[in-house]
Amino acid sequence: MKSFYRIAISVALGLFASAAVAQDAAVIENCNGCHGDDGVSQWSDVPTIAGMPEYVHADALFFFRDNERPCSESDYKQGDTSRPATTMCQVVADLDDAALEDLALYYFELPFVAAKQEFDAGLVAAGKARHDELCDKCHSDGGANPDDEAGILAGQWIGYLENTFADYASGAREQDKKMKEKMEMLSDADVTAIIHYYASQQ
């Protein structure tokens, strides 16, 4: 009986958190304006956030709010008027911890949809080999397993992955010691191959 009550309370809390964000249509509309309907991106430089592990997403939002992660402006300034001229840091600047955590839970409960995009099939095997050698311990199932709490890489847009790898390589985005050691073992060709391997998973 106690187990039943614990489960019921957990479910209720989860539904409450989701409802709290769902009721704030402005916040969701803001996020979907760049990340696509239900968090499924239609733009190569913007990641899909639907299905993203809750811990990973919340952590990223805290970093953006505290200006501890690069905040690039959208391509609006290059003529793409379908997206707002803003940055992640600006979007979450006025949201408190609870709101950020609710956002992360809200999008985690939505289904991840892999990007339908072109990729270089000739690079996939080499990319998979390097992923399996260096990355699979933390990004299992080819980078598709949300239970790793390490983000979803498989099926993300090539442009977003290229920008992310570049930020890590330049030091603009912080990484832990183990990941940094692995990243330093990758050549430019390795990075390109790995990105196309992730993009091939559709």
Tell me about the biggest sheet? none
- The first-level CATH class of the largest domain is given as Mainly Alpha
- The proportion of strand residues reads under 5%
Which ranges are low-confidence, i.e. pLDDT below 50, for 5 or more consecutive residues? 1-17
- Number of DSSP strand runs: 0
Order of helices and strands: HHHHHHHHHH
Overall shape: it is: globular
Give me the secondary-structure category.
mainly alpha
List the domain count as a whole number.
2
Which architecture name of the largest domain does CATH use? Answer: Orthogonal Bundle
**Between the first and last Cα atoms, what is the distance in angstroms?**
43 Å
Mean pLDDT: 85
> What share of the residues lie within helices?
55-70%
Enter the CATH topology name of the largest domain: Cytochrome Bc1 Complex, Chain D, domain 2
The CATH superfamily label of the largest domain reads: Cytochrome c-like domain
Q: Would you mind describing this structure in some detail?
A:
This protein is 56% helix and 0% strand. The chain is mostly helical. It folds into two domains: 2-108, Orthogonal Bundle (Cytochrome Bc1 Complex, Chain D, domain 2); 121-200, Cytochrome Bc1 Complex, Chain D, domain 2 (Orthogonal Bundle), CATH 1.10.760.10.
Question: Which features would summarize this protein structure in a list?
Answer:
202 residues, mainly alpha, Cytochrome Bc1 Complex, Chain D, domain 2, 10 helices, 56% helix, disordered N terminus
